[in-house]
Amino acid sequence: MMEIPEIVGSGLIVIGAGLGIGKIGGSAMEAIARQPEASGKIQTAMLIAAALIEGIGFAALFA
C-alpha cells in the first residue's frame, strides 16, 4: 500500500523536471532567435541550469 504514494511522487518529480528543462530550452531558443550573436553565452547558461534541475530531480528521486 505504501508503494502507490512513492510511485506518484516519483512521477511528479520526473514530470516537473521535464517541464522545467523544456521551459529552459524553449526560452533559450527564443533568446538565441532574438540575439544570435549571444548564442554561446545563452547556450552555456541553459546547459548549466538544465544540469542543476536534473541533479535536483535525481536527488529527490533517490532521497
TrEMBL record:
Database matches in Gene3D superfamilies: F1F0 ATP synthase subunit C
Keyword annotations: ATP synthesis, Cell membrane, CF(0), Hydrogen ion transport, Ion transport, Lipid-binding, Membrane, Transmembrane, Transmembrane helix, Transport
Family: Belongs to the ATPase C chain family.
Gene from which the chain derives: atpE
Domain V-ATPase proteolipid subunit C-like: 11-61
Membrane-spanning segments: 12-33, 45-62
Function noted in UniProt: Key component of the F(0) channel; it plays a direct role in translocation across the membrane. A homomeric c-ring of between 10-14 subunits forms the central stalk rotor element with the F(1) delta and epsilon subunits.
Source organism: Aquimarina algiphila
NCBIfam families assigned to the protein according to its UniProt record, in alphabetical order: ATP_synt_c
Entry protein name: ATP synthase subunit c
Superkingdom per UniProt: Bacteria
Subcellular location: Cell membrane; Membrane
Site keyed Reversibly protonated during proton transport: positions: E54
Membrane topology term: Multi-pass membrane protein
Cellular component, GO, one term: proton-transporting two-sector ATPase complex, proton-transporting domain
Molecular function terms, GO-annotated: lipid binding; proton-transporting ATP synthase activity, rotational mechanism
